[in-house]
Each structure stands twice: as C-alpha cells, then as structure tokens.
Amino acid sequence: MTPRIHSTAIISPDNVVIGKNVTIGPYSIIEENVTIGDGCIIKAHALVGARTTLGKNCRLFNGAVVGEIPQDLKYADENTETILGDNVTVREYCTIHRGTTDRWKTTIGSNVLIMAYSHIGHDCIIGDNVIIANSCNMGGHVEVGDFAIIGGAVPIHQFVKIGQHAFIAGGFRITKDVPPFIRASNTPLTYNGLNSVGLHRRGFPSESINLIKRAYTKIYRSHLNVSHAVKNIKDTMKLTPEIQEILEFIKESSRGIIRG
Fold this sequence. Notes:
Blueprint: E1 4-5, E2 10-11, E3 16-18, E4 23-24, E5 29-30, E6 34-36, E7 41-42, E8 47-48, E9 52-54, E10 59-60, E11 65-68, E12 81-84, E13 89-90, E14 95-97, E15 105-108, E16 113-114, E17 119-120, E18 125-126, E19 131-132, E20 137-138, E21 143-144, E22 149-150, E23 155-156, E24 161-162, E25 167-168, E26 182-185, E27 190-194, H1 196-201, H2 206-220, H3 226-236, H4 241-252
Parallel strand pairs: 1-4, 2-5, 3-6, 4-7, 5-8, 6-9, 7-10, 8-11, 9-12, 10-13, 11-14, 12-15, 13-16, 14-17, 15-18, 16-19, 17-20, 18-21, 19-22, 20-23, 21-24, 22-25, 25-26
Antiparallel strand pairs: 26-27
C-alpha cells in the first residue's frame, strides 16, 4: 500500500525514504536523510530528526521527538545518527537524541517499548525487548541489555550499564552498573534478589536460575569482596552462558556494580 500522509505533515525533499503502508499524521515533521520502514505509524506533531532510521512497524505517538540533536555542548552538527529497530513503540512526548562523535549513533533495538515522557540521551545503546516506563530519564552513553525492564521516574547517570533481564523498580536513581538477571531497588540502589519472575516467564530452566542465584549469593551475600567472589565463582561453579555473562559484565564495568 502507498503511504498515507496527512496534508499538514512537513516532509523534507532531501533523501527521505518512506516504506509501504506508512501513516504520517497531521503536523508531523520528517527531516532530511530519514528512512521510515514498512508499516510505521507516526502520529500528530511527532518529529523525526535528520539521519534517523526507523525499522518496520514502529509507532511514534503524539509529540514524540526521535533523532533530534544531542544535549552535548561539544556537538558541532556532525553526521551522527539515530537508529531504531523493528516494532519499537515511542509513546507521547518521549525524546531520543542522535549520537555524538563518541559512538556516532544512538541505537534502539527491536520490540522496545518506551513509555510517555521518557528521555534517551545521545550515544545510548538499548537492546531488544526492553521496557522503559514513564518519565525515565537516561543520560548519554547508557547501555541497556536485552529484556531489561526499567521502572517509572528512574533517572540514570551517563555511562551506566544495565545488564540483560535486569528489573529496576520505579523511582530509584541509578549511578552504578546494574548486573544482569537481578532486581534492584532502594536508595542508594541495591541488589534485591533475582528477577525470578522474568526469568521463568522467558523460559530459563530452574537449574540455570539456581546457578545464577548461587553466583549472586557469593557476590552479594557472603563475606567475600567482589573480586574474591568472582575468583570463587570461576574456581567452584559451572561456567554456563549465564554465569559467563555475569562475570563478563563485572569485568567490563567501568562505574562499578551496585552494592548488596
């Protein structure tokens, strides 16, 4: 089907590619060098900034801004990008900013839900199947792993990393890295057990969940410090893919992981 474009929408004549069965609502603005995948719906007053790519079946709700310039004073209009995967939902008045010369792009994976009034800063990397609840504010360079869930009204410091399948309760500030597979809450943010419900729902076998729990017991519930706990895990536990993911996350953490 040909695109359905409202007469009041403003679309740049400069290298805009619009896929099949696309809907562009009233007063929306599509800037130059934009690609919009098949089946996308862009509602009223939305803005798709320059050098933005939307995958298939994305939905931008009223007032959403995707691909605007970053809030970084060093940015000098370099040719950076914003890339969204397939089936991304961006609710009302969210803002997603393009990258800087640090990573050259901001990347959102596929099957991601970003709820109303949330902000994703420049150079962020959001994995697949992530849920970001209302009014979550994310500084630049944040990384969020696949299947992570972030509660409402959560401010996230720049350069923070959140591991896959992690669950962060609403209203708590994140200033350190959140390891994979866990629940986190409290002030300051602390380990609050495994995200057991999420892991069961996603088909993790009980044996794998029990091993993950054993590993985090060593990290957070023993007399060992983190480096000694990591060594103990390597020496005494079966290094399944999930355990390796935990160890690699801790190794790569630049801000340090949240406390127990």
